[in-house]
Amino acid sequence: MVESKEVQTNRKDEGDSSSFNLLLPVSAAVAVRAASFAYSDYFEERVEFTSTVYSFERVKDGIAMLDDGLDPFETKNMHFLPLTLYVVRYLLKTSPVLLASLWILLDISTAWIAAQTAQKVWDSVHGRDDRNIGKLVFSLYAYNPIAIISTGILSLTVVQNFVFAAIFFFLVSDRPAACALLIGAWSSFTIFPFILISCLAFRSNGSIFKFLSLVSLSIFSAATFFALNFLLNGNSLNFVEPTYTSILKFTSIQPNVGLYWYFFVQIFEHFRSFYTNSFVILYFFMPIPITIMIRRDPVLHFTIIGLLVSIFFPYPTLNQVSFVLAILPLLEEYKKHFRYTLLIGGTIITTIALMPVMWHMWMVSSSGNANFFFGATIVYNVALINLVMDMIFVYSRRQIDLEYSDTLTKKTKMDFAFY
């Protein structure tokens, strides 16, 4: 009886300690995000944190047109779906403070979901140990300055990261139907996340029929949201060209941290359709060989596909990779095989620091030109692409270790690594 009471007391103490350990980091994360709103006027103009499809200021422009009785999609510069405009309009009319609180809640929830999912993955692979990987993942996202600033300017990438985290959670929890519904819903807004449907191949139990069923469910979800936007727009399809077509054809050429804008400024107009079609075909084809190759590790596959969504999106921001970079500690078993960790990490940090400098030299002091800023952005994206390539390498490297561990010698491994 005494031992039972002691066990109950110990469990209560552990629960109180866990609550305390959770309260402090969450409170700090909320506080820094609330403080970031004071600097929103400066950061909302930065091309590193906003773009034509994620800018909250552009959403407010569309809402103003709706309030004046005008059709926002007649301008061809409104890249937000009717559902986005009406939902944000309702929130703004209800209470602007509520909108800010909602954005903070979404971003903290993203960190929390990522932490819980990461801990679940870690425990299933490594067993329960003293290492709290969930706390590490939470800190990497919650205290990421880019994520904090994006919340302060009410960037729509905050909503995107939340959906990304939810998809990751449902994928790890083996709930493919919910995962397919979210992928379809998210794809109905920006199209490019649809390649995440390849992740459902890991939850199809080798059944092509089940995989096709999940793809159909995702398409149905996207079609439902498309129909809802159609109804909200007064049974008109004039929102298709400024939203979906502008993403696929990259019609709005403005500086951002992506790969496309400078390229399409330089090429001749009669080559434009060839390159836009080539880029779209390449993007939607890439998941096929990657899924065939990395067929034994859904977490690594999800990380690679998530990076591809961010790298090849026509209108990206720095915050799009925040979630993916936060879950990189889950690749602990591959750590010894990574070749360019320091080089890639240093390049990403350096280029992010250089972007505002190059922008100032180009746009403010006029001591530089577009090549200065594009040089920083292209090196940043090359670093992310090298990270993807290194992930593919370490997967192959580890598979060789597992399958041929009895025959490989230390010299053979080193030769392969240098190769």
From TrEMBL:
Topology within the bilayer: Multi-pass membrane protein
GO terms (BP aspect): attachment of GPI anchor to protein; GPI anchor biosynthetic process
Record keywords: Endoplasmic reticulum, GPI-anchor biosynthesis, Membrane, Transmembrane, Transmembrane helix
A Pfam match: PIG-U
Top-rank taxon: Eukaryota
PANTHER family, A to Z: GPI TRANSAMIDASE COMPONENT PIG-U, PHOSPHATIDYLINOSITOL GLYCAN ANCHOR BIOSYNTHESIS CLASS U PROTEIN
Name by which UniProt lists this protein: GPI transamidase subunit PIG-U
Name of the coding gene: Cni-T22C1.3
